[in-house]
Design goal:
This protein is of the alpha+beta class and about 170 residues long. About 25% of the residues lie in helices and about 25% in strands. The strands form two sheets. A six-stranded antiparallel beta sheet has the order 1-2-3-4-5-6. A two-stranded antiparallel ribbon has the order 7-8. A hairpin with a 7-residue loop joins strand 3 (about 95-100) and strand 4. The protein starts with a helix and ends with a strand.
Length: about 170
């Protein structure tokens, strides 16, 4: 990464951080459970059988250095594989990163998930709605967790990704 790219990336991280800090978490709400008024997961419980696995079990330099698997719904798969702004993610695209404690991806510890909203719904983060969940799919962070945005703003710029999605290891 050139010095110019690094400066621009850090500037974007700062802008995103300031914007996210001032945002109302209700923007792009994934849904609220009517029984206990808590956020609900943006992906179905049986996603591993419904979605395509686009990255098999591997060590991740991010996500607390856990091992990961990445799944995409039908709307997101082509864009994730193309890794190009020429194949944008359509609204409704969902990516789920399953995170594991062990190198064989057997000990599930949680998930990070994103869902693409309608154009203009959350423009400062490319209309992505983010969630962190525990292994039981209980939402622990909802909206746009600042550390996710910060990392993706720096590490997911072309050629490693686009629109805050990472599909290549750096």
């Amino acid at each position: 990464m050139s010095l110019h790219q690094m400066i621009i990336s850090r500037f974007l991280v700062l802008i995103f951080s300031l914007h996210i800090a001032s945002c109302d978490d209700s923007v792009g709400n994934a849904g609220i459970d009517d029984v206990n008024s808590s956020p609900v997961a943006i992906f179905p419980a049986n996603f591993m059988s419904m979605y395509s696995e686009l990255r098999d079990c591997r060590h991740s330099h991010e996500h607390e250095l856990n091992h990961i698997r990445v799944f995409a719904n039908d709307l997101a798969a082509a864009s994730y594989l193309a890794l190009s702004p020429d194949v944008p993610y359509p609204p409704g695209s969902i990516l789920v990163k399953a995170e594991y404690e062990d190198k064989d991806c057997l000990d599930l510890i949680g998930f990070t998930a994103v869902r693409r909203g309608e154009v203009g719904s959350v423009p400062d983060v490319y209309d992505w709605y983010w969630q962190k969940l525990d292994a039981d799919r209980n939402v622990t962070e909802d909206g746009a967790p600042w550390r996710c945005i910060n990392c993706h703003a720096v590490h997911c710029a072309p050629p490693h990704g686009f629109e805050l999605t990472c599909a290549e290891e750096i």
